[in-house]
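Example record

One chain of 167 residues, shown exactly as stored in the release files.
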Amino acid sequence: MTPGQILCAILLALAIGFGAAWQVQDWRMGEKLAEQGGLFEKQLAAISNKASSQAQAEQDKRLALEQKLAGQDQQHSKELSDAQRNQARLRDRLATADVRLSVLLAEDPASGCNVPTTPGAVGVVHAARRAQLDPAHAQRIIAITDDGDNAIIALRACQAYVRAVAP
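Predicted structure tokens for this chain:
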């Protein structure tokens, strides 16, 4: 064998050795990459499951809050409609003179009228002097109290909403 052939054989042996080493290294790296890929997929699945469960819990909370608010809204709407119905009934009774608004007049000490200090059997002040209000004034008073009742109901609804949303 000539020195050139020996050199070629050595180079060929080295090339085969490097190729084999390269293949072994490639096989090891492929195995490590596959293992890391599996771990990454497991971690990603765990994170995804946790995020999904948290999102579901938040959605359940939101749904419960929406149902609670809807129930409160129905309750306040019923209160408002009942108050408006009662107010309309009172206005109708005032208009037809079924009911008259009156005010209790202060007693004049000089009149000498002896009024008992305790109410009678039915709870009416005995011998109290009263003055009936003009129906137009009574209607205005009822309108003012209607607005006040509506405002109180609306305020209660707002307070309930705030308590429900920001515990």
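Notes: DSSP finds two helices and two strands in the chain.
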